[in-house]
Design a protein that fits this description.
With 264 residues, the protein is α/β, with parallel strands linked by helices. The chain has helices at residues 23-34, 46-59, 75-88, 112-137, 161-180, 202-215, and strands spanning 14-18, 38-43, 65-69, 94-97, 143-148, 186-193, 195-197, 220-221, 226-227, 229-231, 250-255, 258-259.
């Protein structure tokens, strides 16, 4: 009998992962490499990304791991990524739009350049990456795009209104592309994670931990009945896996354009 993990093997796939050097992107890279996919890693810090590439190549010698430093909010750097892929002759079949950012502020405190930058990082970069990837994805018999959204794009959490708006827009982009590109044989889905404990979120989560400790309360979200955060360790030299069994930490996901029920 074929095991469940055998059904998820990705040999023959090449995955482009943005924001791949830390957090969810790094965990995703490790998971896909473990399933046999070759990796094309993109992140803004080329030196740190190089460390991650070496680590993953050592841990998964059976797959090819390559990296390219780029700021995907810049049009010329997005084009450079796809020039690099074309030069490699890599048969791109998977795109994981994970790169993003946030500057949580009260709505009235945002300057226009600050909230516009959040949209550049979280929406417009992913939109353009999908468009640039389409000519290669359409050539593959089993291509897919996964957009990493957020629970803040579904309901209110304290990440700032600009971030929530941007993630809601990313979810809608997923719905539209899932319908529009189905005829091209490209599946488009999104995941909307709850809080994930990474270097970026650690200070905010530490404050939450202390608040709940003083109140003597368990850290659970009453509206979604879910744990307050999941653990992802992402520093080079430390193992990190985001397993299928950990999907209980995803509040919802968008499957072929349709929002599915909350994962428990």
């Amino acid at each position: 009998m074929t095991s469940r993990i055998d059904a998820w093997q990705l040999q023959g796939h090449t995955a482009l992962i943005t924001g791949a050097s830390k957090g969810i992107g790094y965990a995703t890279a490790r998971e896909l490499a473990g399933l046999g996919a070759d990796l094309l890693l993109v992140a803004r810090d080329p030196d740190y990304l190089e460390q991650v590439m070496v680590e993953l190549a050592d841990d998964f010698p059976e797959v090819e791991v390559l990296a390219f430093g780029a700021d995907l909010t810049q049009a010329e750097e997005r084009l450079a990524v796809f020039d690099w892929i074309a030069d490699l002759g890599a048969p791109l079949s998977l795109l994981i739009n994970n790169a993003g950012g946030n500057q949580p502020l009260a709505t009235l405190d945002y300057r226009s350049d600050e909230y516009r930058q959040i949209f550049e990082q979280n929406v417009f970069a992913a939109f353009e990456m999908c468009r640039l990837a389409h000519p290669q994805l359409v050539q593959h018999a089993n291509a897919a795009i996964v957009n990493v959204g957020s629970v803040s794009g579904v309901t209110h959490v304290r990440t700032g209104s600009a971030y929530g708006m941007s993630k809601a827009a990313l979810h809608q982009l997923t719905r539209n592309l899932a319908a529009e590109w189905a005829v091209d044989g490209i599946r488009v889905n999104a995941v909307a994670p709850w809080y994930i404990r990474t270097q970026r979120s650690e200070p905010a989560l530490a404050d939450v931990d202390e608040t709940y400790r003083r109140a003597g309360r368990s850290r659970r979200c009453d509206c979604l009945s879910m744990p307050a955060c999941s653990q992802l360790h992402h520093r080079p030299g430390r193992s990190c896996r985001w397993r299928v069994s950990q999907l209980r930490f995803l509040s919802c996901w968008f499957c072929d354009g349709q929002r599915c029920a909350a994962s428990r």
